[in-house]
Design a protein that fits this description.
Elements lengths: L14 H12 L3 H9 L3 H9 L5 H10 L4 H6 L16 H17 L6 H18 L5 H11 L1
Helix pairs in contact: 2-3, 6-7, 6-8, 7-8
């Protein structure tokens, strides 16, 4: 079983459990998940789970396009239980620009940050750009990245 953090200490995000939740939601085999969501082989998916390298961009894009609650998918917890709140639709264009900006900067600088920090950073940046109405820009993304990298 692989978690997304190399030291295996993250109790909230677990690659194997995420894939199990996709199976629960879809009824698909791991071979089907590998092909339909990640466009890779089952063996490659197995390696990515073991090596903590799930492609979260593809996973979240699939979740958005299939109305799968992202918090449930990642954590296994339903954020709507016990709460009377309406789910807000995700702006996939803004999310895509944020993820791409973060991934590009990390790749160009050959920088690695823990997946949970990267996830929180993407979430904070996304919320910032949604609340301000500003277009995601690399300068802002890099300034936030420097705080965590």
């Amino acid at each position: 079983m692989g978690s997304l953090v190399k030291n295996k200490m993250n109790k909230y995000i677990n690659s194997d459990k995420i894939i199990s939740r996709v199976q629960e939601k879809t009824g698909w085999t791991r071979t089907q998940i590998a092909a339909k969501i990640f466009d890779i082989s089952k063996n490659n998916l197995g390696n990515r789970i073991r090596e903590d390298r799930l492609d979260f961009y593809k996973l979240l894009n699939w979740a958005v396009n299939n109305n799968v609650n992202k918090e449930w998918l990642i954590t296994g917890e339903d954020p709507t239980i016990g709460k009377d709140k309406e789910l807000v639709p995700l702006d996939i264009e803004v999310l895509t620009k944020v993820i791409t900006g973060v991934e590009d900067y990390l790749r160009e600088g050959d920088i690695e940050i823990e997946p949970d920090k990267k996830g929180r950073l993407i979430s904070v940046l996304y919320e910032r750009f949604i609340k301000t109405g500003e277009e995601p820009d690399q300068k802002t993304i890099v300034s936030y990245l420097k705080l965590v990298a």
